[in-house]
Amino acid sequence: MRPSMRRAVSLTRDVDPWLLLAFLALLCFGILMVYSASMAEAYAYYGTPYFYVEREIIWAGIGLVGLIAAARIHFDRWRQLSLPFFGASLALLAIVMLPHFGHVSHGAQRWISFGSFFQLEPSELMKFALIIYLASWLSSKSDQVRDFRGAVVPFSIIVGVIALMIVKQPDLGTAIVVTVVALSIIYVAGANVSHLAGICTGAGFCGYIMMHSRSYQSSRITTFLNPWSDPTGSGYHTIQALLALRYGGLFGVGLGNSVQKYVLPAPHTDSILAVIAEELGLAGAVAVLLLFLVIAYRGMRIAAGAPTPFARLVAAGITTWFTFQALMNFAVITSSVPFTGVPLPFVSYGGTSMIISMVAMGVLLNISRHATGEGFARKNIDNRGRDGGSRVPRVIPRPVPTRAPVDTQHIRLGRASDRAEAGSTVVPRL
User: Fold this and answer.
1) What is the helix (H) or strand (E) element at residue 76, kind and residue range?
2) Residues whose CB falls within 8 Å of the CB of residue 284, separated by 6 or more in sequence, listed in order
3) C-alpha Rg value of the chain to the nearest Å
């Protein structure tokens, strides 16, 4: 066997096969759909229909290198790098807002440009860095994570500052994703549910104020309730996405035959699901959703069987990230929530999001190598109802009681004597 083949076999030998297959299916399908959704715009602006898909393939190749490296490196190494990684991501998130540093596109300042080929989006990097940092910090607190002043208040400040910096770009969708992922991590760590309810209430109140403090965000709520009130303005994107769903029907108009990709804003990024639904119909959209549900299920299984609290929190955070962001994209395209732009993981076009997401998937695959394969979380029955904690089963490590040694010889003799007393014939063993 060739060395490259041996390395590929060794990489996939111990990882979760269903998680790996679901990811690879989404990646390959995403490259195909990026080409289908972008070829018209690429030819119109760059004179070749392969402009976007060529870059997507390059970024996917870079991401695969990162995934392989992350899958081979022990997950505990990330704990050692958590603080500098988080600090560097926070610095980039601040730099992108400075004049002459952040690249502005469509009224948003979210990128740091490195030439015409690649633009770094610090908010995508922060998703992964925040997961690693919170997992390292909260796993070191053990039962102190239920302390309001020692854990909940610092957690709220950290996540609140990061969310506010992302909203300033502005990017409300990513801020929501970051907040939900952070809440999932502290919940799995064992935080008091009443404390989490308070955090959610405060976050919802702040989100309500932000959405009504700017005209373009409040107009999105208005168009969500009635997109046809402004069909050529704020409701245009929602209407075109709904039309794509309507034209697609059950099995679609055929791969490459989408009409809405010529009028949809960002058909190969935030709106790629609308193109999928038009070309492959409801069946294609449901297939994509099922692949993400496989990732959600296998990811939570990996978190439940993770060998350390740090690995458990990292696995839960990464799984929540992919799953919630995908569900949010589905909700936006189907007009189930007000419009906000978030990419579909592993499917939408994008350099930073593709590479960072694939590295995170590599970390999740590495954790699956060391998972025990046990079932979902055990109930925290020791303190239930006495410490104000949750009655919901969570992934909280508890020592497994050891069984007393069993004297098998006495059991055999006892069973033999029972049979003798019942009148049966006992054949002695040699």
Assistant:
1) helix 76-80
2) 248, 252, 276, 277
3) 26
Distance CA 354, CA 350 (A): 6
Contact predicate 264/271, CB 8 Å: yes
* Contacts of 207 by beta carbon, 8 Å cutoff, 6+ apart: 172, 176
Say yes or no to pLDDT of 185 above 60. yes
Size of the chain in residues: 430
Per-residue confidence at 182, pLDDT binned at 50, 70, 90?
very high
- Distances 37 to 43, 52, 164, 275, 343 between C-alpha atoms, Å: 12, 10, 33, 7, 14
pLDDT tens column, 205-234? 877 777 666 666 666 777 777 788 777 777
Please state, in angstroms and rounded to a whole number, the distance separating the CA atoms of residues 146 and 136: 16
* Tokens linked to 310: 């740090």
| 106 phi-psi bin (left φ>0, alpha ψ -120 to 50, beta other) | left
**Among candidates 90, 109, 87, 88, which has minimal Cα distance to 161?**
90
pLDDT band at 393 (very low <50, low <70, confident <90, very high): very low
| pTM of the model as a whole | 0.83
Contacts of 347 (CB under 8 A, 6+ apart): 26, 29, 30, 33, 34, 272, 273, 276, 288
Q: Determine which helix (DSSP H) or strand (DSSP E) holds 112, and give its type and residue range.
A: strand 108-114
Tell me the per-residue pLDDT of 87-129, one tens digit each, with 9 for 90 and over.
Answer: 999 999 999 888 777 777 766 777 787 766 678 889 999 999 9
Q: Give the pair of three-digit tokens for residue 302.
A: 């990996």
To the nearest 10°, report the CA torsion of 78, 84, 85, 88: -170
Task: Specify the amino acid at residue 175.
Answer: A
